[in-house]
Amino acid sequence: MRRAIALKSEPAPYYPPRARWYGKLRYPWFAVRREMQLEVIEQRAGMSVINIVLGFVLPGLSYAACGRRITAGAVGVSWGIATVAFMVAADHSFANIARMAAMSLHATSVLYLLGRLMPQAGVGERFMLGLATIFTLSQFVYVGRA
């Protein structure tokens, strides 16, 4: 005795959907992520690409993205106070101290982020990376003499 098998009109759950011809035009960000291998960076750092980019720009955000909220708040508030003090005391010697405090807080935040991105780096590489970060911030972000 044969049983009649009813054919289902819907596809089986294990059959993946196919990409449409307009997929690359509609979602260009996915092609960029695939070409630049941004998933590997996200997995290594444990945070999204947007948080990584903002971690380089905003001091303290790299700590917040890694779950250290108190440290992030302390660095962010200290950097804000140092930046405002630098702008207010532009012609005084205190402005140099405020600028160096803001720059060192920014460099500390960037170095924490770079440490998350490159955990295999040795002591010498981290030292040279720290010098390069301080030099880059002093020449391109915190430019000028107080």
Task: Provide structural commentary.
- The chain is mostly helical and 146 residues long.
- The chain has one domain.
- Helix content is 67%, strand content 0%.
- It has eight helices and no strands.
- Helix 4 (49-57) packs antiparallel against helix 7 and helix 6 (69-88) packs antiparallel against helix 7.
- The chain starts with 22 loop residues before the first helix and ends in a 5-residue tail after the last helix.
In short:
With 146 residues, the protein is mostly helical. It has helices spanning 23-26, 28-36, 38-45, 49-57, 61-65, 69-88, 94-117, 123-141.
Question: Which structural traits does this protein have?
Answer:
146 residues; mainly alpha
Largest sheet: none
Radius of gyration: 24 Å
Query: What is the ordering of alpha helices and beta strands?
Result: HHHHHHHH
Structural class: mainly alpha
Low-confidence stretches: none
Which range does the strand content fall in? under 5%
Helical content (DSSP H or I, runs of 4+): 55-70%
Shape: elongated
Mean pLDDT: 81
* SS summary, helix count: 8
Kindly report how far apart the N and C termini lie: 95 Å
- Number of self-contained structural domains: 1
Secondary structure: number of strands: 0
